């Protein structure tokens, strides 16, 4: 309970503290190269994410950073729990935005930071809006930004990796950037498996070898979803 309260209070105070930086990030010079600009913008969210995970007491091990290619990528990860995002934001050495459910857009400050991070809000219940979100994501990738997707669509809470919805793989097909699969294990042990209390846990993140954009171009997106899911499962213990 103490960790849960500490996490909550830290998040609230840090978000308020971040407002001046958020304002500066919105005004950042558009002439700065995309990669450099993204790294500047991600400094505070990265620091915030690492502090959050430190408060949880999590022991985070990450491997495969050397496999990260230059330029934009589509990160594809399984989705265990609520602490997936701060774990990946804090410890993956490549800035990225991510696909989020549209309801988060109503959350003050957090949604503003997500917009600056080039996140895409998607309403899965509205097919037309979902298609538009995919197109927006493709444009961001073509501009040089990276994007993370959880194609299961919901948290497994530590259960088996679910089926990957193929629609989101259109991002990689249409933008022709590499797919970088990520296997994440243990985040559900921090929260979801503890009666909604926060406890220390061991988290393992594995960055898998990229799937070349030319390969994804020549594979049906349903087959691509199955292949990438299998890569992620194969890199789990």
Total helix count? 10
How are helices and strands ordered from N to C? HHHEEHEHEHEHEHEHH
Q: What class, by secondary structure content?
A: alpha/beta
Beta-strand content: 5-15%
User: For the CA atoms, what is the radius of gyration?
Assistant: 17 Å
**In which range does the helix fraction lie?**
40-55%
What's the story with the biggest beta sheet?
Answer: 7 strands, mixed
- Distance between the amino and carboxyl termini: 30 Å
Stretches where pLDDT is under 50 for at least 5 consecutive residues are none
CATH class: Alpha Beta
The CATH topology annotation reads as Glycerol-3-phosphate (1)-acyltransferase
The number of E-state strands comes to: 7
Which short descriptors sum up this protein?
single chain; 237 residues; alpha/beta
């Amino acid at each position: 309970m103490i960790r849960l309260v500490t996490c909550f209070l830290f998040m609230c105070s840090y978000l308020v503290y971040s407002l001046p930086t958020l304002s500066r990030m919105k005004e950042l010079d558009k002439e700065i190269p995309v990669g450099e600009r993204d790294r500047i913008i991600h400094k505070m969210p990265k620091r915030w994410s690492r502090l959050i995970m430190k408060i949880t007491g999590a022991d985070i091990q990450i491997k495969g950073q050397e496999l990260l290619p230059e330029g934009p990528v589509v990160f594809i990860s399984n989705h265990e729990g609520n602490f997936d995002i701060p774990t990946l934001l804090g410890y993956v050495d490549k800035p990225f935005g991510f696909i989020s459910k549209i309801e988060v857009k109503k959350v003050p400050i957090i949604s503003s930071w997500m917009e600056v991070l080039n996140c895409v809000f998607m309403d899965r219940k509205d097919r037309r809006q979902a298609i538009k979100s995919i197109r927006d994501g493709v444009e961001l990738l073509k501009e040089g930004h990276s994007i993370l997707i959880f194609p299961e669509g919901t948290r497994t809470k530590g259960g088996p990796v679910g089926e990957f919805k193929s629609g989101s793989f259109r991002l990689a097909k249409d933008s022709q950037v590499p797919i970088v699969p990520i296997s994440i294990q243990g985040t559900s042990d921090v929260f979801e498996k503890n009666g909604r209390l926060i406890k220390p846990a061991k988290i393992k993140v594995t960055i898998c070898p990229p799937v070349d954009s030319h390969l994804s171009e020549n594979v049906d997106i349903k087959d691509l979803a199955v292949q990438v899911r299998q890569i992620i499962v194969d890199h789990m213990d």
